[in-house]
Amino acid sequence: MTDIWFARWKSGPARASAAGGDPVVVSVTEFTPRRLWTALGVCVRGTVLRRIWPDLEGAVGVWLWLELGRLHPRAGAVSVWRGEADLRRFVGRRDHVQIMRAYRDRGAMRSTTWLADRFDPPAVRKAARDWISGT
Fold first, then answer.
1. Residue range 19-28: average pLDDT?
2. Checking phi first, is residue 70 left (phi over 0); if not, alpha (psi -120 to 50) or beta?
3. How far apart (Å, rounded) are the C-alpha atoms in residues 13 and 56?
């Protein structure tokens, strides 16, 4: 197994409500490109999108992740939201849709979403890592 690298946590404006013990929605995405250079483009676009996180309504925060050491490196995000409507609003944003359309035919995408009773960062990250690793 290779190592999964997580970028620093980037907080969103709903971080305070999650810190109060409210339930949160967790979304984990994974993109596996068919070509190595595609991974670089996805990472750059993801990093640019990450910059807007402090302004996204309902965003608790995000970790970008990357797994190197494979023929086809994988990359994605673990995002945490105040609710499902906030996640859906982000997924429908024009900039997010443009990225998805640009890369949808360049690799394989998978995702999962779950509701957590409260935001426990180590538990969320462990659950995300287990899902990414397939364990």
1. 90
2. beta
3. 7
